[in-house]
Amino acid sequence: MNFPENVKYTSDHEWIRVEGKFGWIGITDYAQGELGDIVYIEVPGAGATIEKGKSFGTIEAVKAVSDLFAPVSGEIVETNAETKDHPEAVNKDPYGAGWMVKIAISNPAQLDALLDVQAYKKLVGK
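The structure corresponding to this sequence follows.
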């Protein structure tokens, strides 16, 4: 199981990688493993706003459909066409090719409430 140190985590198993005022959001390796084979991802397009802790889309796997929860608030500036056309990219590379949305972060202070890699590992028992 992969736990990159360059991302922040949520207790709902999303991650965000921050570069400047932008953040790339996806689900963790742990989450994709629990979901199994991912077959469909639905997220809003560019221009939509997301709110910290609120659902901003869904991810469908063979086993279940789950909500995606925003780690921070912001405006979607890009969606990942790769995961729309090939949702299995999330299973293969959840922190790379498997990202779902890129946002302009509206409140950077919200990042302080997220989990670092050690806290996330403790949450999932690793």
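The radius of gyration is 13 Å.
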